[in-house]
Amino acid sequence: ALCTLMTSAFKFSLSQQSHGKSASEVMTDLLEKTTVDLLSALLNTAEITQEVRITLLDFLFIDEQDFNKQSHDSQTKASLVDVLPLSVESTTSTCGLLLARVLLFQSVMRYSSELEEVAKLAITKKLYWLLDVLTEKEVYTSVLS
């Protein structure tokens, strides 16, 4: 799951640089479908429960309030929080990571026809996250440009 998020974060950081736009387009052509296939394989497997699917999506598509609340929850969730700051450091800003998540969510929605029904249901439960994020000033202006 972290791999899919890191790929989106790297793609976003390339797209923000004037000399990186063409590299970002090539990366999209080469890796976007593969990244979504990886996430789809995790979500479509019959070996995990719906609760695990939702936890995985919560890890990928989490807002700042939930992130702070999650750090005070159970030990299992705390281990996810320990991993996430590494990806924040690898991007230029927290906003960059948030935009990378929006790009990943957009890719997942684009290829959602390949998801099984239980995975689609889990993704549907994260639509509120997308709407909340799109109303943030930095995200809204970046999406419009």
Helix content: over 70%
The separation of the N and C termini measures 28 Å
Average pLDDT works out at 75
Task: List the uncertain runs.
Answer: 67-72, 74-92
- Largest beta-sheet characterization: none
Strand content: under 5%
Tally of domains: 1
**SSE string, helix = H, strand = E?**
HHHHHHHHH
How many helix segments? 9
Instruction: From the alpha carbons, calculate the radius of gyration and give it in angstroms.
Output: 15 Å
Please identify the structural class as seen in this structure.
mainly alpha
Q: Count every beta strand, where a strand is a DSSP E run of 2 or more residues.
A: 0
The protein's oligomeric status is: single chain
Globally, the shape reads globular
InterPro entries: DUF4487
Protein name: AT1G04650-like protein
Pfam families: DUF4487 (PF14868)
Q: What brief labels describe this structure?
A:
145 residues; mainly alpha; 9 helices; 78% helix; 0% strand; DUF4487; AT1G04650-like protein
Write the layout of secondary structure elements.
Blueprint: H1 2-15, H2 21-44, H3 50-60, H4 64-70, H5 75-90, H6 94-110, H7 117-124, H8 127-134, H9 137-144
Helix pairs in contact: 1-2, 1-5, 1-6, 3-7
Short description:
With 145 residues, the chain is an all-alpha fold.
Characterize the structure shown:
This protein is mostly helical. It has one domain. Helices cover 78% and strands 0% of the residues. The protein has nine helices and no strands. The chain has helices spanning 2-15, 21-44, 50-60, 64-70, 75-90, 94-110, 117-124, 127-134, 137-144. α1 runs parallel beside α5 (75-90) and α1 packs across α6 (94-110). The longest helix is centred in the first third of the chain and has 24 residues, at 21-44. Residues 67-72 and 74-92 have low confidence and may be disordered. InterPro entries: DUF4487 (IPR027902). This is AT1G04650-like protein. It holds the Pfam family DUF4487.
